[in-house]
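Feature request, filed as a ticket because there's no other form

It would be nice if the structure record came with a short human-readable summary line next to the tokens. Right now we just get the raw output. Example of a typical job, pasted below so the devs can see what we mean:
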Amino acid sequence: MKIKILYEDKNLLVIDKPSGVAVHGNGKTKEKTIADWVIENYPSIKNVGEPIVTDNGEKILRPGIIHRLDKETSGVLLIAKNKKTFEFLKEQFQKHIIKKTYRAFVYGFVPEPKASLLNGKRGVINAPIGRSPQDIRAYTAGRGARLPLRDAITEYIVLNCFTDTKNKNKEKNPEHQFSYIEAYPKTGRTHQIRVHMRYINHPIVSDPLYRGNKNLALNMKRLALHASSVTFNMPNGEQKTIEAPSSTDFKKIIKEYIS
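Raw output as currently delivered:
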């Protein structure tokens, strides 16, 4: 497994997680994960962090892994090299000090958010999230979600609206309309950005769980979501931002339809 390292020091490792690789195992499949890569390349990190215990009692190691990205999501992932750093960063996540930025392609033209004194030009999706009543794998926002509901807030801006056709008549058809957005989750719920974009009727392109009856699009065969940057405090008080460049498939869409 080839993993790009974005930043590294004696306490912290930051990688660019490729799409299609799970962060850690689930006790059901034997596919190689980021956790496997960490143990193989940084064996001293093996017991840093908090393992998961499955229903059958199997312990799944999550070496140094403070947060997670969905399997099909690419981008920035933080890995602590020791317990002190793990606890230091975990507290920042719990207190919502760490700032994460994602980029995504979504279906339809997302309206430009109205400017406000509180949020500037960012749109705000404030909708609690709970389990879906129809699909055990999925979550849903607002009415219809199973209890307990958890507060969830996502801010976003629209970077670009575009179509996947040059035919003037087809451009007016919603199935050819897309938006390129930047999202800023203020809470860290499972599938939060995916669920919230579905909630406002602009699901992420090619999302296997939340796109509904929409087709795969823009030649994206995976979830079109990329964790582009994370900003956090270092132990010495310095604020640091680590960025992951757009993945190859994202760059191809930008070049073909936006540039």
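Something like this underneath would help us a lot:
The chain has two domains: 1-95, 99-223.
DSSP finds four helices and 14 strands in the chain.
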